[in-house]
Amino acid sequence: MPILDRNTLEFVSRSPEQTRRLGMRLGSMLQSGDLVCLNGELGSGKTTFVQGLSQGWGSLDIVTSPTFVLVNQYQRMDGNTLYHLDAYRMQNALEAEDLDLVQMIDSGCLVVEWPENIREALPGDCLWIDMKYVAEESRQMVFKPYGERYIAILAEFRRAAFGG
Fold this sequence. Notes:
The protein has helices spanning 16-27, 46-57, 93-97, 101-107, 148-162, and strands at 9-13, 35-39, 71-75, 81-86, 108-113, 126-135, 138-146. By secondary structure, it is α/β, with parallel strands linked by helices. Strands 1-7-6-2-5-4-3 form a seven-stranded mixed beta sheet, sandwiched between helices.
């Protein structure tokens, strides 16, 4: 396990409810133009985290995995959109470029599951979260900010979620 730098946060969630609550906390901090990348194998808690993130962001829509439709859209009462992209079935960044990711980011927030499949198509600035299945009820999350905006979000998230 690499040594984490001061901007990286590692946490082990002990239940799906705790994973959702962390997502809610982060979602409440997001604004239009933000990009969150959720990297992890099947069963690592990505969709559970997005359920909380969407709720904290302000959507009342039910969150489901967009594996077969590629992109789900969740709305807020103010008309803003949260785009939830699942790149699991994408082979490369060229396939993602057809989806107009820039427009999604410019017009709302974008959350990407399986971002490593399309990394070349994504902006460099983002909040990258590596998620890992640890045990039946436990998921490890390592939050890594890329860019000043995401360093600030993660610092605020750390204070709000953990008091530090």
